[in-house]
C-alpha cells in the first residue's frame, strides 16, 4: 500500500501546560477508511487540527502525500478536506455559492459540472439556490461535506460527521463515503457511533489521554481482543449455581433459565468442552446454546479503561 499521510512523534502542549498529544506515530494508506476512536478530551480534535493546519504542533512531523506539513504547507493542505464537528458556514449564502467559493479558495479553476455532480451526489442540487439558514441540520451537514470535497482532496477528515443527523441521511452519507473510497479518497473519521466504525472502517485507532494506545486492522482487533460469550438455554431453571461449577466464572440469567459463560476465544483452553462435560456429569441438560463475539464498542471501552488504570497507556501503534 502507498502511504498518503505520515505522522511522526507528534506532540502538542498548550500554553496552559495541558499536554493534549504525546508521541503520536501513525501511517495512513491511500484509499483506506480509518476510524479514530476515543473519549471526549482524548485528543482526537487536536490531532485533526494539527494535520489540517489549524493547530500548531509543539513537536513532531506530518507529511501529506510526500509534502512536509511545515515547509510545504500549501501543497499539503490542498490535499486535505475537513468536515468539522461544528457547523460553520455563512448563513445567508446560497448553497451553490458557498461550495463554489470553497473550491476557489484552494486555487482550483471554476468547474460548474463538477460542482453540480457533487451537489447531486449529496442530494443538494434541488437546494442549490437555498440560503444556508433555510436548511435543516442534516442538510447543513451535507453542505459542509460538499465544501470539504469542492477542491477534490485526496484525504477527507470527518469529525463526528453524523452527529445530529437522522438515520436516513446517515445511511446516505456512508454510501457516499464508500463511493469516495472506491475512487481512491482516503477517509479518516471520528465518531461516537462505534457501530459505524465497526461497519465502515478498515483500521481502527484508539486514542486516550493524548496517546495512541492501539492501531489495528478492525477485523484482527475484534478477533485478537474480543471475548466470546456462551449462553446455554437450560431445560429446567436453576435456583442457584451448583458447587460443581465453581471452576468456571458463570452467571445465572433469564430467571434461572440461562447459564452465561464469558471466555477468551484466543486462549489455548477456552474451558467450553470441559464445562459441557461437567454439566452432563451433573445432570443439567440444556435445550440450546449460542455464542456471541464482543463488539468493537466493548473492546474500545475495555482498552480505554485499561489505559486509565495504567496511567497513560503504552504506545501500541502498528502502521
Describe this structure in words.
The chain has 319 residues and is an alpha/beta fold. Helix content is 33%, strand content 28%. The chain is built from ten helices and 14 strands. The chain has helices at residues 44-51, 73-78, 95-105, 112-121, 137-149, 167-182, 194-200, 218-225, 272-281, 296-310; strands spanning 3-13, 19-29, 33-37, 59-64, 67-68, 80-83, 155-159, 186-190, 203-208, 211-217, 227-234, 250-253, 258-264, 286-293. A six-stranded mixed beta sheet has the order 6-7-8-3-9-10, with helices on both faces. It has a four-stranded antiparallel beta sheet with strand order 2-1-4-5. A four-stranded antiparallel beta sheet has the order 12-13-11-14. Strand 4 (59-64) and strand 5 form a beta hairpin. Helix 3 packs parallel to helix 5. The longest helix is centred in the middle third of the chain and has 16 residues, at 167-182. The relative contact order is 0.14. Residues 312-319 have low confidence and may be disordered.
- Compute the number of strand runs: 14
Largest sheet: 6 strands, mixed
Shape estimate: elongated
Strand order of the largest sheet: 6-7-8-3-9-10
Average pLDDT, all residues? 85
Distance between the termini: 11 Å
Class inferred from helices and paired strands: alpha/beta
Low-confidence stretches: 312-319
Amino acid at each position: 500500500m502507498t502511504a498518503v499521510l505520515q505522522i511522526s512523534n507528534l506532540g502538542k502542549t498548550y500554553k496552559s501546560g495541558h499536554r493534549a498529544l504525546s508521541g503520536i506515530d501513525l501511517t495512513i494508506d491511500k484509499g483506506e477508511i480509518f476510524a479514530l476512536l476515543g473519549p471526549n478530551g482524548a485528543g482526537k480534535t487536536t490531532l485533526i487540527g494539527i494535520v489540517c493546519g489549524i493547530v500548531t504542533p509543539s513537536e513532531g512531523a506530518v507529511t501529506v502525500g510526500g509534502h512536509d506539513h511545515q515547509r510545504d504547507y500549501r501543497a499539503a493542505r490542498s490535499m486535505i478536506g475537513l468536515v468539522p464537528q461544528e457547523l460553520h458556514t455563512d448563513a445567508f449564502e446560497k448553497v451553490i455559492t458557498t461550495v463554489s467559493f470553497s473550491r476557489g479558495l484552494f486555487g482550483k479553476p471554476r468547474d460548474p459540472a463538477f460542482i453540480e455532480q457533487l451537489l447531486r451526489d449529496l442530494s443538494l442540487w434541488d437546494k442549490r439556490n437555498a440560503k444556508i439558514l433555510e436548511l435543516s441540520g442534516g442538510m447543513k451537514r451535507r453542505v459542509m461535506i460538499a465544501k470539504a470535497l469542492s477542491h477534490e482532496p485526496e484525504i477527507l477528515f470527518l469529525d463526528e460527521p453524523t452527529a445530529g443527523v437522522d438515520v436516513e441521511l446517515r445511511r446516505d452519507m456512508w454510501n457516499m463515503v464508500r463511493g469516495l473510497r472506491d475512487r481512491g479518497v482516503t477517509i479518516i473519521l471520528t465518531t461516537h457511533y462505534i457501530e459505524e466504525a465497526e461497519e465502515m472502517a478498515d483500521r481502527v485507532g484508539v486514542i486516550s489521554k493524548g496517546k495512541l494506545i492501539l492501531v489495528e486492522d478492525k477485523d484482527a482487533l475484534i478477533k485478537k481482543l474480543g471475548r466470546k460469550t456462551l449462553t446455554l438455554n437450560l431445560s429446567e431453571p436453576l435456583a442457584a449455581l451448583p458447587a460443581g461449577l465453581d471452576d468456571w466464572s458463570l452467571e445465572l440469567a433469564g430467571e434461572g433459565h440461562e447459564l452465561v459463560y464469558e471466555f477468551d476465544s484466543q486462549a489455548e483452553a477456552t474451558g467450553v468442552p470441559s464445562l459441557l462435560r461437567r454439566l452432563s456429569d451433573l445432570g443439567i441438560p440444556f435445550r440450546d446454546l449460542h455464542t456471541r463475539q464482543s463488539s468493537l464498542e466493548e473492546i474500545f471501552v475495555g482498552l480505554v479503561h485499561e489505559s486509565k488504570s495504567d496511567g497513560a497507556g503504552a504506545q501500541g501503534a502498528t502502521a
